[in-house]
Design goal:
single chain; 545 residues; Oligo-1,6-glucosidase, domain 2; eight-stranded parallel beta sheet; binds 1-deoxynojirimycin
């Protein structure tokens, strides 16, 4: 298997608006990221993924871009950004940027021109269709954020297509001029010296020819993985990506391992690695058996041929210790267990800011406290059907994207030390208990556990390139698996439950050396194969085969 820096790396995702505010406007900013770079570096991570900082009316927190070559005022200036890149590089880390090219903002000049008339030269840069004979939308598809993918535009009497909000029209990738404009823009950033891209919903670029009605419109998987997508990515690779030493990670919803390999196969000339959503989208609550099945299928599907990524939360998915673990009695143990898993399963691990101190989801009282356009739109849609607003709110809370978007809790001072102003979204009220200052003061904190896990990855190739075997298939609480590389074996044992669990370790692990554990009193050697794992206990053992 080819060795690559991005396979060996640990990536830290910075959602800058909630990271650290230096100018008191209530939004985090680029200068805030710069000020906290030593904090990120101390964790041991190699790569920072910065979510979109480009000019944007900010309807979808920067994922609606109105100018790809400028920086949003809230985030700072281009000079700030250039300093950020330099400071990241000075610390021997790398910076990858979000690439959002399935859609732009409706305020982008391209769209302004496109919508101005049917014969405008940029008309075909977006997707326009006539109404159905009854005046309705061209087909019955749902978008991610609204009941229809089509929005009627009075000016020219046609509908335009949007996979997300109305303010996020999709680009027409069939048009070669669009592709060239995007490739040019990518070179603009790569030539500034960035180290790669996280590619937003990159498998949505190609649309189904003719836009036929869907049998099940609520199942929006018709939006992605359509014929033509691989040609676009191969062209992008040929014209842009392959000319730089970078990493690319595609956000690829609705993908199975078999199709995933088409995006990241080492012989395909497309992307390096991907985020699939079989956990984040298909497992609203923890299901150990399903999770193991997903891991096994991905391992069998792509190991040795392509590269996976591991994550359990990000700015779109509720904090992992709340969604999948126990954020109450066993918050510390549970956060450490989940981290052990993410950092020892095959693929590059991703940390979402705040995860390293065990930040939790939120439970705001009113829909007014929530900011997420996906949640707000869905709330409106359901309430407009006549449903009870309270009931709708309760239903939407657990998976609201705002669970992950509350400000990083730096200390116990007002607003968790995030801002001197009014934060754009309320701080989680538990910041006096859970904050960075406290984590850095406690030698056994979640933070230092992450630091140790990351250091282990640096010293042990087996954690990166080793194979994977599940020894606990079917067990709903225990997860035991090995990673093997040449003569090195690692055994990972996890008790993902609130009760003690008895466990028999495999024979060959007798006297294995304990590498890390989230309980303090575990013997240094596995001298007894019969063992009991306490609630949310995690251990990694190593032995020579
Ligand atoms: C995925 C991004 O992560 C999410 O935040 C955004 O709303 C959509 N893509 C649309 O760009």
């Amino acid at each position: 298997m080819k060795q690559k820096w991005w396979k060996e790396a640990v990536v830290y995702k910075v959602y800058w608006r909630s990271f650290y505010d230096t100018d008191g406007d209530g939004y985090g900013d680029i200068n805030g990221v710069i000020q906290k770079l030593d904090y990120i570096k101390k964790l041991g991570v190699d790569v920072i993924w910065l979510n979109p900082v480009y000019k944007s009316p900010d309807k979808d927190n920067g994922y609606d871009i109105s100018d790809y070559r400028a920086i949003m005022d809230k985030a700072g200036t281009m000079e700030d950004w250039e300093r950020l890149l330099e400071e990241v590089h000075n610390r021997d880390m790398k910076l990858i940027m979000d690439l959002v090219v399935n859609h732009t903002s409706d305020q982008h000049n391209w769209f302004q021109e496109s919508r101005s008339s049917e014969d405008n030269r940029k008309r075909d840069w977006y997707i326009w269709r006539d109404p159905k004979p009854d005046g309705g939308p061209p087909n019955n598809w749902r978008s991610y954020f609204t009941p229809s993918t089509w929005e009627y535009d009075e000016k020219t009497g046609q509908y335009y297509f949007h996979s997300f909000a109305i303010e996020q029209p999709d680009l027409n990738w069939r048009n070669p001029e669009v592709r060239e404009a995007i490739f040019d823009m990518m070179k603009f950033w790569l030539d500034k010296g960035i180290d790669g891209f996280r590619m937003d919903v990159i498998n949505l670029l190609a649309k189904i020819e003719g836009f036929p009605d869907a049998e099940k419109p609520e199942k929006i998987n018709y939006l992605g993985n359509n014929p033509g997508i691989h040609q676009y990515l191969q062209e992008m690779n040929e014209k842009v990506l392959r000319h730089y030493d970078i990493m690319t990670v595609g956000e690829i919803p609705f993908v199975t391992p078999e199709d995933g390999l088409k995006y990241v196969g080492e012989d395909r000339g497309e992307l390096d690695t991907l985020f699939h959503f079989q956990v984040a989208d298909d497992m609203p609550e923890w299901d150990m058996v399903q999770f193991k099945d997903i891991q096994k299928k991905w391992f069998e599907g792509i190991f040795g041929k392509g590269w996976n990524s591991q994550f359990l939360n990000n700015h779109d998915h509720t904090r992992k210790v709340t969604r999948y673990g126990n954020d109450k009695a066993y918050r510390e143990e549970s956060a450490k267990l989940l981290a052990t898993m993410v950092h020892t399963l095959p693929g590059t691990p991703y940390i979402f800011q705040g995860e390293e101190i065990g930040m939790t989801g939120v439970d705001f009282d009113s829909i007014k406290d929530y900011q997420d356009i996906a949640m707000k739109n869905k709330y409106r849609e359901e309430v407009d059907k006549g449903r009870d607003p309270e009931e709708v709110l309760e239903e939407l809370k657990p998976l609201s994207r705002d669970n992950s978007r509350t400000p990083v809790q730096w200390d116990a001072s007002e607003n968790a030390g995030f801002t001197d102003g009014e934060p754009w979204i309320a701080v989680n009220p538990n910041y006096k208990e859970i904050n960075v200052e406290k984590a850095l003061d406690e030698p056994h904190s979640i933070y230092y556990y992450y630091q140790k896990l990351i250091a282990l990855r640096k010293e042990n190739d087996v954690m990166i390139y080793g194979d994977y075997e599940d020894l606990s298939e079917g067990d709903e609480r225990l997860y035991m698996y090995t990673r093997n590389l040449e003569e090195h074996s690692w055994l990972i044992v996890l008790n993902h439950s609130d009760e003690n669990q008895e466990l028999t370790l495999p024979n060959e692990s007798i006297n294995a050396e304990l590498k890390i554990s989230n309980y303090e009193d575990v013997p240094e050697k596995a001298s007894n194969l019969q063992t009991t794992l306490r609630p949310h206990e995690a251990r990694i053992y190593s032995y020579i085969k």
